Amino acid sequence: MSIENDTERQKQIDKLIRNYKFYQDKLLQVTQKNRSVLLKKIYNKHNFELTQLDKIKEGTIEKIVSKTIKNIGATLNDKKDEGASQNILLDSIENDDADSARSKLKILSRNLMQIEEETGQQTGYLGFPFLQGHPNPDFYIRGPLVLFPISLEYKRQAKNGGWFFHLADKRPILNGALIAALKKKGGYQLPENYEETFDDLIEEMSNAKDENLEEYFFKKVNGWIKTIIPIDETKNQIQTVPLEPLSKEDLEKLEKQPFHLVNYKIIGNFPQADNEIYKDYNDLIKNANLLDVGVIGELIDIEDPDRETFDSGDPQIDIDNTKDIELNTILSSDSSQDEVILESKNSDLVVVRGPPGTGKSQVIVNLISDALTNNKKVLVVCQKRAALEVVKQRLGQVGLDRYVVFLEKELDDRLKMYAQLYGIIEEEPKPMSYSELTVDEISTKIDSCVQYLSGLGNALRKEYFGGATAQKIYTKADGQYNPVLDLSSVDLVLGWAELDGYIQKIQSVETAFKRFEDKSHPWFGRKDFAEFGIMEKSRLNEWLQKLIDLAPRCTLANNSKDQADLPLLFDIYLNHPGFLKTKRRGAAKEIEQILGIKVTDSFVSENFERVKNGIAFWKIFSDLLAVFDHKKQRELESMVTDTRSLVSYLTEMQSSLGEFDAMQELDKKKNEYEKSIFAILDQAKTRFNIDDDWFSRIKQEIYAYWLAKIEQENPILKGDPISNYQREKNELAKLMEQKRQIVTKTIQRKIEGVIHPRYMYGRNRTDEQKEWRAFSTELKKKRKVKPVRKLFQDYSHYLFQIAPCWLASPESVSKVFPLKRNLFDLVIVDEASQLAVERAIPFLYRARRAVIAGDEKQLPPFDLFQIREEELEDEDEEISDEKSLLELARTRYRTINLSWHYRSKYQDLINFSNHAFYEGLLNVAPNAINDPQHPPIRWIRCNGVWDHQTNAIEAKRVVDEIRNIWESKFEQEGAYPSIGVITFNERQQDLIKDFIETRLETDPEFLELYTSAHEGAKKDDSLFVKNIENVQGDERDIIIFSVGYAKDAEGRFANFFGTLSMKGGENRLNVAVTRARKEMIVVSSIEPADIKPTSKYDGPKRLRQFLEYAKMTNSLNEEGQRAVLAEINPDMERIGESKKAEFDSDFEIQVYKKLQERGHRVETQVGFSGYKIDLAVIHPHDENRYLLGIECDGASFHSAKSVRERDVMRQKFLEGKGWTIERIWSRNWWRNPKHEIDRIDAKINELVKGEVVQKW
């Protein structure tokens, strides 16, 4: 669309404002379902009422409130209040009320901790006082006005153990959702400076005296709020009171109330993170008239008339023809990942679909390194903390994490962050060694290798002669065959598809050609019999018979003209001698010349009639001669003077007329077939042995001719290209690894070389150096430390120079960074399927270009901060229809699919997901070993009972299994594997957590195992227990999958599976079953057949299929696995019986047969996914293991989208999964198949011998 006038422009502005307001309204969920707006009742999962503590120990609330208000001063003055932590419920207090409170605190603490772990955001607050009343007659609010950040902790200790209440080192905040409700539902126009005046109130409280702090604070808040909205102070309740629950009916009956303050004191989850994003929308709306929308324009259907857009135009990127300087990566990558990096430079926005384990974090890290190499500013956004931590950890593996700022936990640890930044300024850049290559130099070397390897691959893969590749021809051709025909002199117009038919034609005429086109055959040299019929054949026979009969009665001249003259000459000789017999003498002389004999009277007398008969002979003979070519005519004419030989030859010709049909058929084919066939056969007559199979040799001649032409066109195939290939391949692998190190060092030098402290002091400093000094001074402060946002406002230019990459949640982005277009050159979004569009618009506004990564087959957007007040039971839960950022982006932009699966050690762990959700398109490494004692998926059957949405028997079995794993794995491997437990609902999750805690308290051996397993482990390797709603992004070595569902005590099975039974529920299953790296254990109290097809959605059906698949995998029943997968994905390539040989090419068949002849057991096309290993040699002493994988340079070899993937990444990938890989080249096989088989045979023996030596 083109904006042609102001009217059209205004339409765009109005539309943009409507869109912004639409997304802003969705953001805070200003409804009565939001507990921050209307707290209807206390749910243990979300809140805890402090009045319960006063029942246990009077005065507890007063102490908590006093410490809370005192902490304001400590926070504002950067003084850590050592007393900001208080034991609120001692273990030593034993009564029913205390036990009840402990249980509730545990539930709440778990939930707050889970949210913080997932998001890195503060969600725990102490809220008071509450504002309640009606903004309008139909809407009631009852929510905390002021929120004090807190956390809960249980400390198990000998003295004074119990529950502790911690005040965070943060200032109190306003309840943004409540303020938004006043604006939206009440229509109140709040003063622009309402936040500043609230901050002033908080500043004043920091200097308050200790006496009557709570009352003083209440009055101050009341005084502040009544300047904004009307307050009925007569209804205010300054005394702490318990919260009365409100039902739906209570709300309907509730009379309109004026606003007033009530001193409820509630701790718990009052989500506020979206407040900052909400404020961004205010600024976006203010600036909408500029139509400056950037990358979000296409997403929200708005055109920016002045925006320069980037569009690659070509949906396919030729990676091998892209200069390597465009790929500055620090981690290994495959072609689909490389394509993302290249596309991010050509397009405004790139969408990446990353199924489980396909290396999204790998791509993100490489996007970062490429951007930093090119001096770009990068922001990585994800609302899940774990995903951002993975990115930072991966950067840390190469030493780049120190240049990355991770805005986690709502910026708690500023001092640590600032110390990190100052350390960069202090760092002396490491000088570049004389011999060290630059990024440009090593990229040029890589380009050279890629060019050679790509050229060789292209030469082998390119199709010639209508469909033949060099690889195909090498496979068919006999490398030992020496060509003798000159096919270049033949007009050989022949395609690959026509070759077999062409050779069949040669074979069909070979026998006849050898016989009838041989010079010794009496009919050799004949003209075309193709048009002859029975009459012509009969006439030939008649002529021959007459000639045979006449020849003995004739005296013949060697041509018909002379024959015609002879009777006259004989008559002159006998009857007209002439004067002095001159005529007689002349006739005699001519007769002698014609017949070549001495003429006598008796000869003439005796032969007069014979020469007359010769005229009749020649008349017939001339007709016969017309059947032959000129050369054969001369040959036959030369025979007439030797009657005996002539008659013999004519007799042979007459006899050969019995083959007339065969000769006629040959002549017909001469007319029908290509002329080149008979031109080739003509050469073969003189160069082949008559006993050879000419058609077989001609086929080899054609192969040789074709290969000569191909090699002439592709000189790279001449000589010994495979040795050159191996050398270049090894060099490429070495250079790629070297470049990754060089890229890392280059980034480090660029950042560390920006400034050094010694340039910031002394005389003659530049203004910039003075600014650097002021900036570094701020970073070194221990007190009155500037908030990150303020530091960014003052020193953004310097911050970006030493920290060009930032990791943050959407909320942190809005909190820290100014709302400025093109603030970041590249914004990368992870887990975008779970990110609602309204949370993404503001941070994408800050992007010049963006990459959006996620997977629509995983979890959709969800209530991340659990804003809704109702505590939903499984049966009532709803699946969100919220549109994710990923879903929206996929409708507007081309999607790049990541295609290689890296996470799972065994293909069995991902096969189900691959075929159930991704149509089998993921490339997965086949298993190198199938251990019947340790199947990748174990099935444990329990006899559990479903009771109140829990299964206690199964939960106990899960805890037992955790212990068994730690004991057995440590004994076998000397290390503890990481473990994760996944349940279908939150209640089963909590029950398992309870059982683990009980076991830790009562079982010293379990406690010791637990402690040892976690000692020195990374946070992301600690034991987790989660339900399917919040496990996306996690992975562990071993996953225990607690199905939970079972028959109840009466033996009834409900056949309902919570969110799994809802729309999109199958995606939750997909997430759950793809978290394991090494092993999955399915603990189930039901059989697959127990699940009946009653749901209209796919979730239960997929669960049944997964349980079937798990049981088949447990028993290593490959055929059963295939049957389940084939039911799910009918397009899955089936090979019937698992041991049945199937081949990708004739080349593989030849190799397979030769290996079998050597006594090796070989399986073909090994694997369940789109990628298969061509041939796999089974270990001679262990049928459950493959000793060697063999790749032939066929379809699998050429299916790689880049040289880097084909020749470096894929082999490294397979070796990482336990394979030893050898490659057989078709050209080497063509030259010397025995040598290649000997080489493979030797490798097999070497591997077997090596294992024996190692064991010894």
TrEMBL record:
Residues annotated as domain DNA2/NAM7 helicase-like C-terminal: 883-1085
Kindly indicate whether the keyword Protein biosynthesis belongs to this entry.
no
Could you list this entry's UniProt keywords, alphabetically sorted: ATP-binding, Helicase, Hydrolase, Nucleotide-binding
> One GO molecular function term?
5'-3' DNA helicase activity
Q: From which domain of life does this come?
A: Archaea
**Which segments constitute the DNA2/NAM7 helicase helicase domain?**
334-397, 722-862
Where is the Restriction endonuclease type II-like domain positioned along the sequence? 1147-1244
Presence of keyword Hydrolase? yes
Give the protein family. Answer: Belongs to the DNA2/NAM7 helicase family.
What is the protein named?
Answer: Superfamily I helicase
